[in-house]
Design brief:
There is one protein chain. Helix content is 59%, strand content 2%. It has a two-stranded antiparallel sheet. A hairpin with a 4-residue loop joins strand 1 and strand 2. The N and C termini lie far apart (86 Å).
Length: 173
């Protein structure tokens, strides 16, 4: 058997069904399709239909897809949720960087991990998910403005004003 696991294909399920109908042993069926006997046995058990009293590959395939749909982690930034709206508002209207947003959420809700989101998740919602709504909303926003500090601009202008006043008062115009 390969070290890498592969899920049963519909063809393999059909072979298991046909061989089971013929009365072929689980071991011979497993050898024929190049699988472990435990895999074939599990498939027969999961695909058992109480209505017919036999193995049904369609029911086994349906059960497999239902199990797979429950696997994995769900997305945190789903369109229409509070968190998505909050992140979107900060990105678009307030020009916050993903790092600032992630940090603020952790500060505001230190005991509620459901309201935490990493900056990588925000970047993925913008760039990696091509069908995501954040990407569509960010089309008009310049990501380079995340790197500039808005206070820095006001400090520069204030320093320039102070320099200008100092020069004027000393007579060096």
């Amino acid at each position: 058997m390969n070290a890498e696991y592969r899920h049963l294909s519909s063809e393999e399920r059909a072979v298991i069904f046909c061989e089971h109908q013929r009365g072929t042993s689980i071991r011979k069926t497993a050898h024929r399709i190049g699988r472990c006997p435990a895999t074939v046995s599990r498939e027969l058990r999961r695909g058992y239909s109480p209505a017919t009293g036999a193995h049904c590959p369609t029911q086994a395939s349906r059960a497999y897809r239902a199990r797979r749909s429950r696997c994995g982690r769900g997305q945190k930034l789903v369109d229409g949720t509070w968190l998505h709206g909050w992140v979107r508002d900060r990105l678009i209207h307030r020009a916050w960087s993903p790092e600032q947003i992630a940090g603020r959420l952790r500060t505001m809700y230190p005991d509620d991990p459901d309201k935490h989101v990493s900056h990588e998740t925000i970047y993925a919602a913008i760039y990696a998910y091509p069908k995501g709504t954040l990407r569509k909303a960010m089309i008009g926003v310049d990501p380079l403005r995340w790197t500039s500090d808005p206070l820095r601009k006001s400090r520069r202008s204030r320093c320039h004003e102070v320099d200008h006043r100092i020069r004027r008062s000393s007579g060096n115009r």
